[in-house]
Amino acid sequence: MVDLRREQQATLARPRMQYGLKARLLFWGMDLLYGKPLTLRKAQVLEILARIPYQAWEIRQYLRLTRLYEDAASVAWSRRVTSWTRAAQDNEFWHLLVIDERMRQTGFRKSWLWDRWLPRVAVCKYRLFSRLLCLFSIRSAFHLNAEFEDHAEHEYMQFVADHPELDEEPVDSAVVREQGQFATWGDVFRSIGLDEREHMNNSLAFCGLPSVAGAASPVVGGTPPAGEAGESGTAG
């Protein structure tokens, strides 16, 4: 059984990745609009956006499968990518449902501008960016996602540290129970942080890079096969 508190401390003690320019610019934009500290409103937007790269990669890999179905190595690699991206999308969507549940339980009043219109604009722009990036360099796309997931892991763990009252609030939610039994809301957000660590490690694995922290489950992945766009592209 995973000791969530110990994993939280391990995350907070581990330095963040050295983020590249693309990641820093995107983080800066989110901080400018929603503030630097993680809040439920900001987490909601981040989870709305979190599924988009996985969707872009899945679409790309199905296009490759149609074109390269006679190449066994390419087929095997693309099927690993699509299997992982589907699971990751489902997990990120669960995060979004959990945050929405938490907002409802705390009586959070959503704003048309900050919680609906701006996220929709961000989705349109980020979808285009993600599809273009994975066409140009799938390896750079994986590495950028690893940076995002590392950032998210640290943010969620710091969020729990900044809100100790979460460890005093029991969980009563059918949505949360979809992924297990959690004693408090603090543990729910710690578990989300661990999910982000797993996504980070899998993203690194698909770059052919080692994990920077222990994965919660076996890491999938493998270096892109010859012929995949951007195999030798610069990450970051």
Describe this structure in words.
This protein is mainly alpha-helical and 236 residues long. It has a single domain (22-206), classed as Ferritin (Up-down Bundle), CATH 1.20.1260. 68% of the residues lie in helices and 0% in strands. Helix 3 (40-50) runs parallel beside helix 6 (112-136), helix 4 packs antiparallel against helix 5 and helix 7 runs antiparallel to helix 9 (185-206). The chain is globular, with a radius of gyration of 18 Å. The model is unreliable at 229-236 (pLDDT under 50).
Pattern of helices and strands: HHHHHHHHH
Mean pLDDT: 91
Straight-line N-to-C gap = 34 Å
Largest sheet report? none
State the secondary-structure class: mainly alpha
CATH topology name:
Ferritin
Q: What is the number of helical segments per DSSP (H or I, 4+ residues)?
A: 9
How many domains make up the coordinates?
1
Write out the CATH superfamily name. Alternative oxidase
**Would you count the extended β strands for me?**
0
CATH class: Mainly Alpha
Runs with pLDDT <50, length 5+? 229-236
CATH level-two architecture:
Up-down Bundle
**Percentage of helical residues?**
55-70%
| Rg over alpha carbons | 18 Å
The amount of beta strand, in percent, is under 5%
Apparent shape: globular
